[in-house]
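From the pipeline queue, job 12 of 40. The input is one protein chain; the requested action is below.

Action: predict structure.
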Amino acid sequence: MRILDLGCLEGLYSIGLALHGATVVGIEGREVNFQKAKFAKECLGLNNLEFIQDDVLNLSPEKYGYFDIVLCCGILYHLNVPEVFN
């Protein structure tokens, strides 16, 4: 199963899902959160987990591929409404 975690913060859900065997991509926009998530991934040795620092509005199948599940927890209120619908 391939899972995308948008706005993954420090990677809590991404890490938990990867520990259960899923292939996970976590996208986080803030540098400090991204660095913490990467550190946790490396400490746990999770080769099935990738953290990427990017804006979730840059999401496209060409850039990241397709996923079975997409998590979008606690991020919608951070987005500018007109941009979300474009």
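Job complete. The radius of gyration is 12 Å.
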